[in-house]
Design goal:
The protein folds into two domains: about 130 residues, Rossmann fold; about 100 residues, Rossmann fold, CATH 3.40.50. It is an alpha/beta fold. The radius of gyration is 18 Å and the shape is globular. Helix 4 crosses helix 8. The protein contains eight helices and eight strands. Helix content is about 40%, strand content about 15%. The strands form two sheets. A four-stranded parallel beta sheet has the order 2-1-3-4, with helices on both faces.
């Protein structure tokens, strides 16, 4: 099974780190296709960033389908473009925030989210409410580090994350931690060991759920609102994103 891991920002270094952490998690014989968005922001930390990462993300989904991907993981905790991506894919598409929250409820009665910037706590809260996890999410906390700074000073980051997670567990009386950024994925195992509680990385969670859906031969329903997009003209620089009028198989993306 080929699984596409999409980094919807344009940081090639982050994509490489994600792939290094994720690849050992795959079942033998499965293949990881790690890709970096070809257009968009260097990091995704606000609503504006999320909006402008979507063309590159949707292009990556289309390319992945063409290249034989049988499932997709969107490696950004905001789950940008998740429903649009499901519309244009014949195969399962998983967002890492939704995946991580689901898994957290299977191993604890309440979880805390530890994310990057303080402003992204609000975006995470919106996702908690949208996905129906309000009764399970006991708190959302931030270490106030930009996404692109997560790669620097690994020892300092480990210490800072450990302290933030420890304080979240105590304050919220929760039993698990959800890491609120794809760039934190490499910290999950060590933090879990140090804290003595499940620490869930959404990238790993998303990959394993895609594998499960593939093994069960379950794909995105094309009945109702996740059917392929309606055929209609698009204007301006989005002309190439118009869906074809003949058949639902492929969008006419340019580039």
């Amino acid at each position: 099974m080929k699984i596409q891991l999409i980094n919807p920002n344009t940081s090639v270094a982050m994509t490489a780190r994600l792939a290094e952490t994720a690849r050992p998690l795959l079942r033998p014989g499965n293949q990881l296709l790690a890709v970096t968005s070809s257009a968009g922001p260097a990091s995704i930390e606000c609503h504006y960033d999320e909006a402008l990462c979507l063309p590159g993300l949707l292009q990556a989904i289309r390319d992945g389908e063409r290249d034989g991907a049988e499932g997709h993981v969107i490696a950004c905790f905001g789950d940008p473009g998740l429903l649009a991506a499901r519309e244009i894919s014949r195969h399962p598409v998983i967002g890492i925030a939704e995946a991580a929250m689901h898994l957290a409820t299977w191993v604890a009665t309440g979880f805390s989210i530890v994310t990057t910037l303080d402003r992204t706590k609000i975006i995470a809260r919106h996702l908690v409410e949208r996905y129906g996890f309000t009764q399970y999410c006991r708190g959302i906390h931030a270490v106030d580090i930009p996404v692109l700074a997560l790669d620097g000073q690994p020892q300092g980051l480990q210490h800072l994350m450990h302290k933030a997670c420890e304080e979240a567990l105590e304050h919220d009386q929760s039993g698990a931690i959800v890491l609120g950024c794809a760039g934190m994925s490499h910290l999950a195992e060590s933090l879990s060991g140090a804290l003595g509680v499940p620490v869930i990385d959404g990238v790993g969670a998303g990959l394993k759920l895609v594998e499960l859906l593939g093994e069960l031969k379950l794909s995105t329903s094309k009945r109702g609102d996740l059917d392929y997009p309606l055929a209609k003209p698009y204007s301006g620089f989005l002309q190439g994103f118009a869906w074809p009028r003949s058949g639902p198989a492929e969008p006419r993306f340019s580039g």
